[in-house]
Automatic annotation (TrEMBL):
Gene: pepN
EC number(s) recorded for this UniProt protein: 3.4.11.2
Coiled-coil ranges (or none): none
Protein name: Aminopeptidase N
GO biological process terms on file: peptide catabolic process; proteolysis
Group of enzyme by EC: hydrolase
Naturally occurring in which organism (per UniProt): Saprospira grandis (strain Lewin)
GO molecular function, one term: zinc ion binding
Listed Gene3D superfamilies: Leucine-rich Repeat Variant, Neutral Protease Domain 2, tricorn interacting facor f3 domain
Length: 874
C-alpha cells in the first residue's frame, strides 16, 4: 500500500518546482518560511525512482519473520461483565529463534497495560516498553539473550475488545477476538456468554502473544468466573477451585504446541454431556433445551474420530474433543484445538435433524482441521488452503465413507458450483496459494475451500488411493506440530510416489483458473475410427493450458455395459485422439471418473445422453444426463428413462426424477400416482418422500388424500415430508389444508411455518394477518425472505389501503431496527419493495416509498447497502 502523507505531497511539489526552473500554479503557493520549517525532514525516496515507474512489483504477502520464539503461554483471566473487559495476567516464556536479541515485539490489541516485567528467580524486574497504535507492544529486555537462553515476561493488562479503535479497516470491529453476549443479563431471550474467535489474528485482542500462524506455544489458562458459569478451553481441565469471594477458578492446560489463533474460551450456562472415545473425553455443550439432542447436533463424533485416525494413518493427536454451540457467533464454526465453537444454527431437535447432513459436514470439517490446521498449520495466510482445502475434502471423505461415493459426489458438485460462482460469475479467479491477496480475510473464499477440495480429489484420483493416503500420512508425520507451505505437501507426495509433481502443483496450486473444455466425439463408419477431440478454451494468458491425464470409457452395442478403458493425457490446447473401433459406440465417457475441475461444453444426441444416464456409474454423469433430457419426455423412451430414475441408487437423483417425471395417458398417470404414493411412504430418504408428495400435489388427484393424511399424522416423520404432504393437500383441497394449518402452527417449525405462509398468502383473508406478526421471528435465512413475501402477497390480495398503510409501518420498523438480524431486515425491506411495485401509481405508493427509503438510509451493513443500491429507489 502506498500512503501519501502531507509531507510527501509538499516535497513533491517542491521537487517539481526545482526541475522546471519556473513557477507554476501549485508551487507558487509555497512560501519560503514553510520550506525552512520542513528542511530537516528526510526526502521521501519515491522521488529518485521515477525512471523505474514502468516496473510494477506484484503485491507479495510473505510469511512473518520470526525473531523470538514463544514457548509457553500462562494466562490468568477474570472478567468485568458490565464494562466488557478482561482483566489479565500473562506469563510468556520466550527465547530468541536464532539471532541474539535484546528486544521483543508482542501483539496486544486495544489493551490498557499495567505492568511489563521480566521474571527472574521468582522476582519481577520492570522493563521499559513502548505501546504503539494500541497494537504493538515493544519491550526492551534487560540484556541481550542468545538462542540457548529462554526468559519469562510478565504482562498485566486489561483487554477492552469493545473499545478497539476502528483503524483503517472497518473489519476490526468484527475482529474483536473476545465477545460478551448479554453481559448485563437484561435480555430474557439470550443466555449470558463469553466466547472467543482467534482466526486470523484476533487472539491478541484478549492476550499478548505473537499472533501469527507460524508461531506455536503450549498453553495454560486459569479462568475465574462466578460459580454458576461453566468454562471451556483448550486441553484438559487440571483443577477447579472455589474462591473465598464465591467465584471459581478453572485451570485448563494444553501440553502440545499449537498456534495462538487456535486458543479458545467459552463461558456460559451450558448443558454438558460426555462420552468416551479411545480413553479420551468427548464433550458436547448446548443450551439446556437442546440437552437431549446433543448427540444428534454433533452427529457421529466418535465414529468420525476413528475414521479420520485410520484414513490418515495418524491417530487423533490431542487429549480430548469438545464441541460447543454459542450465541451470535461471528463465523460458522472454528477448529480451536480440542474446543470447537459452532454457531447456534447447529441447535436443532432430533426430528429436525432427520437426514440432515449439514451438521455432519460441519462437524467433519472442523474435526479434519485437527490434523490439517491444528497439527500442521499453514505457515502464512497465503497458504491457508493447507488448512481449508483439507477440511473441505474431509467432508467428502466422511460422506463417501458413510453414505457412499454418489452422495459424496453430489456434495462435491455443489462445492464446484460454489467455486465456479466466484471464478466465473463474479470473474474473481486467483491462484490457490495466493501471495497477492489484498486482505488476509479475503483468503477465506471459494478457492481455499471449494477449489482446494476439488484439487485434492483430482490428485487422489491421479495417484490412486494407496499413494494419496500414504502421502498424507507422510506429510502429517513429517510436519507435525509445525507450520508448512504448499511445497512441503508436494515434496511429501513426491517422496512417497517417486514421481515429480511440479506440473500438477504449478497449474493447480500456483496458477489461477481452470480448463474450459470443449468435447467432441465422432465416429467414422468408413475408416472404423472413433475420434475424441478436446480443446481448452480458457484465457491461458490469465491461467495456463492444463495437463490433464484422464480416462475414456468406450461403450459399444456388442460389449453392452462393459467399456473399453483408454488412458489419455491432454497437454496441448487442442488435441485429437483416434481409436480404431469396429462398430459405432453407444456412448463414450470422457473423464470416466468425472474428477476434472473444468467447465465442460459438449454436444450429444438425446440417445447419447440417455445412454450416459444408463451406462455411467458416476453421479455427475447421471445427473447431467437427466438435466439435458428432462424436457424431452414427449418421447416415450425419454419418459421411461425418468421412470427408471425414480429408482436410482442416489437419492438426489430420485428426488430430481420426482420433480420432473411426466405421464401422458390416463393409464400412465394412474400408474405414476401409484409409484409416487409408494415412494412417498417408503423411500428411505426424506427429501425423496417430500419430492414425491409435491409431485402428487401437482398431479392433483384426490385419490391420494388418505395416504397423504396418514403421512401428516406421523409424529416421527421429518418436517420436510410433512411440508411436502401439506403442499399436496393445498393443491387438492384448500379447505382441508386451512383446517390442518391450525394444527401445524403449533409445531413452530420454520419449514412448516413457511408452508402455512404460502397457503395464507393466497387467501386474501385478513384473519390470517396475525399469523405473520406472531411467527416472523421464527423464520430464518432465505425462509425469512419468502415468509415476508407471502405476507406482502396477502396484503395486496386483501386490498385495503388503510390496512396496508398500517402494516407498512410495521415493515419499516422491522427493516430498520438494527436489533433484528440481517435476514429479517432484508426480508422486510424486500416486502416493502414488492409492495411498492404492486401499488404503482395507487394511493399508498408514496407512503410505501418513504418507508422503504427510511429502511435503506438506516442500514449500516455494507452487504445490504450494496444490495439496496441496485434497487434504484427514488
Ligand atoms: Zn475450516
Amino acid at each position: 500500500m502506498v500512503q501519501i502523507s502531507k509531507k510527501a505531497l509538499f516535497w513533491g511539489s517542491l521537487m517539481g518546482l526545482a526541475m522546471m526552473g519556473t513557477s507554476c500554479k501549485t508551487s507558487s503557493k509555497v512560501k519560503k518560511e514553510e520550506v525552512v520549517e520542513y528542511i530537516d525532514y528526510e526526502l521521501e525516496p519515491v522521488e529518485v525512482t521515477a525512471n523505474r515507474l514502468d516496473f510494477d512489483r506484484a503485491v507479495y504477502n510473505p510469511s512473518y519473520t520470526r525473531r523470538n520464539d514463544l514457548l509457553h503461554t500462562d494466562l490468568e483471566v477474570r472478567f468485568d461483565w458490565n464494562k466488557k473487559y478482561l482483566l489479565g495476567k500473562a506469563k510468556l516464556t520466550i527465547k530468541p529463534l536464532f539471532y541474539p536479541t535484546d528486544s521483543l515485539r508482542l501483539d496486544a490489541k486495544g489493551f490498557d497495560i499495567q505492568k511489563v516485567a521480566i521474571l527472574q528467580g521468582g522476582q519481577e524486574k520492570k522493563l521499559q516498553y513502548k505501546y504503539e497504535d494500541q497494537k504493538n507492544l515493544f519491550i526492551q529486555l534487560d540484556r541481550s539473550y542468545s538462542r540457548e537462553e529462554s526468559y519469562q515476561i510478565l504482562v498485566e493488562y486489561t483487554a477492552k475488545p469493545d473499545e478497539l479503535p476502528i483503524g483503517g479497516s472497518a473489519a476490526i470491529t468484527a475482529d474483536k477476538g473476545l465477545y460478551f453476549i448479554n453481559p448485563d443479563g437484561k435480555n430474557p431471550d439470550k443466555p449470558q456468554q463469553i466466547w472467543t474467535q482467534g482466526e486470523t489474528e484476533s487472539s491478541s485482542c484478549w492476550f499478548p502473544t505473537i499472533d501469527r500462524p507460524n508461531e506455536r506455544t503450549t498453553q495454560e489458562i486459569k479462568i475465574t468466573v462466578q460459580d454458576r458459569f461453566q468454562t471451556l478451553s483448550n486441553g484438559l481441565l487440571i483443577s477447579s477451585r472455589k474462591n473465598e469471594d464465591g467465584s471459581r477458578t478453572d485451570h485448563w492446560k494444553m501440553e502440545q504446541n499449537h498456534a495462538p489463533y487456535l486458543f479458545m474460551m467459552a463461558i456460559g450456562e451450558f448443558a454438558r454431556s460426555t462420552e468416551e472415545w479411545n480413553g479420551k473425553l468427548l464433550e458436547y455443550y448446548v443450551e439446556a433445551e437442546y440437552a437431549e439432542h446433543a448427540k444428534a447436533i454433533f452427529p457421529q463424533t466418535p465414529e468420525m474420530l476413528s475414521f479420520f485416525s485410520a484414513r490418515l494413518g495418524y491417530d487423533y493427536p490431542w487429549p480430548k474433543y469438545s464441541q460447543v454451540v454459542v450465541r451470535d457467533y461471528v463465523s460458522g464454526a472454528m477448529e480451536n484445538t480440542t474446543g470447537v465453537i459452532f454457531g447456534e444454527y447447529m441447535q436443532k431437535t432430533s426430528r429436525e435433524l432427520i437426514d440432515n447432513t449439514s451438521n455432519e459436514g460441519v462437524v467433519a470439517h472442523e474435526m479434519m482441521h485437527h490434523w490439517f490446521g491444528d497439527l500442521v498449520t499453514c505457515e502464512s495466510w497465503a497458504n491457508l488452503p493447507l488448512n481449508e482445502s483439507f477440511a473441505n475434502y474431509g467432508e467428502y471423505l466422511w460422506f463417501e465413507h458413510r453414505y457412499g461415493r454418489d452422495f459424496a459426489d453430489y456434495k462435491r458438485m455443489n462445492e464446484v458450483r460454489g467455486y465456479m460462482n466466484q471464478a466465473v460469475l463474479q470473474d474473481d479467479a486467483h491462484p490457490l496459494i495466493h501471495y497477492g491477496y489484498e486482505d488476509k480475510e479475503d483468503m477465506f473464499d471459494a478457492h481455499s475451500y471449494n477449489k482446494g477440495g476439488a484439487i485434492l480429489h483430482m490428485l487422489r484420483k491421479y495417484l490412486g488411493d494407496d499413494a494419496f493416503f500414504e502421502s498424507l500420512k507422510h506429510y502429517l508425520h513429517k510436519n507435525e506440530y509445525s507450520a508448512a507451505e504448499a511445497d512441503e505437501l508436494r515434496l511429501a507426495f513426491e517422496e512417497v510416489t517417486g514421481e515429480d509433481l511440479n506440473w500438477f502443483f504449478n497449474q493447480w496450486f500456483y496458477k489461477a483458473g481452470h480448463p474450459k473444455l470443449n468435447i467432441k466425439r465422432s465416429y467414422s463408419d468408413s475408416s472404423k475410427t472413433l475420434v475424441v477431440e478436446l480443446e481448452q478454451t480458457q484465457d491461458y494468458s490469465q491461467s495456463t493450458v492444463f495437463i490433464l491425464p484422464m480416462e475414456l470409457a468406450i461403450y459399444t452395442p456388442s460389449a453392452g455395459d462393459l467399456p473399453i478403458i483408454k488412458q489419455i493425457r491432454m497437454d496441448q490446447q487442442k488435441q485429437r485422439f483416434e481409436f480404431p473401433l469396429d462398430e459405432a459406440p453407444t456412448w463414450v465417457a470422457v473423464d470416466r471418473e468425472r474428477m476434472l475441475l473444468a467447465e465442460r461444453a459438449e454436444e450429444q444426441s438425446k440417445e447419447e445422453w440417455a445412454a450416459q444416464y444408463r451406462l455411467s456409474a458416476r453421479f455427475q454423469d447421471r445427473y447431467d444426463a437427466l438435466q439435458k433430457i428432462k424436457y424431452d419426455q414427449g418421447e416415450e423412451k425419454m419418459r421411461k428413462l425418468f421412470w427408471t430414475a425414480l429408482q436410482d441408487p442416489a437419492w438426489p437423483i430420485r428426488a430430481m426424477a420426482c420433480d420432473y417425471v411426466k405421464a401422458q395417458s390416463e393409464e400412465e398417470t394412474k400408474s405414476l400416482i401409484a409409484k409416487l404414493s409408494k415412494m412417498a411412504e417408503e423411500d428411505p430418504h426424506s427429501q425423496v418422500r417430500m419430492a414425491a408428495l409435491q409431485q402428487l400435489g401437482r398431479i392433483g388427484d384426490a385419490s391420494i388424500l388418505p395416504t397423504v393424511k396418514k403421512i401428516m399424522a406421523n409424529q416421527e416423520e421429518a418436517y420436510s415430508v410433512i411440508y411436502g404432504a401439506f403442499k399436496a393437500i393445498q393443491q387438492i383441497d384448500q379447505n382441508l389444508a386451512l383446517e390442518l394449518a391450525k394444527e401445524l402452527e403449533q409445531e413452530q417449525n420454520p419449514t412448516l411455518l413457511m408452508g402455512i405462509a404460502e397457503l395464507y398468502g393466497q387467501t386474501g383473508d385478513r384473519q390470517y394477518l396475525p399469523f405473520f406478526s406472531k411467527n416472523w421471528q421464527k423464520t430464518e435465512n432465505y425462509g425469512a425472505i419468502s415468509f415476508f413475501g407471502q405476507y406482502q402477497k396477502l396484503l395486496v390480495a386483501i386490498a385495503d389501503d388503510n390496512l396496508t398503510l398500517e402494516k407498512v409501518k410495521t415493515l419499516k420498523e422491522i427493516g430498520s431496527n438494527p436489533k433484528n438480524d440481517l435476514w429479517h431486515r432484508y426480508a422486510a425491506a424486500n416486502a416493502l419493495y414488492d409492495l411498492q411495485k404492486a401499488y404503482f401509481e395507487k394511493a399508498p405508493y408514496e407512503e410505501i416509498q418513504k418507508a422503504l427509503k427510511t429502511v435503506i438510509e438506516k442500514e449500516e451493513n455494507s452487504n445490504l447497502k450494496n444490495l439496496y443500491q441496485n434497487w434504484k429507489v427514488n
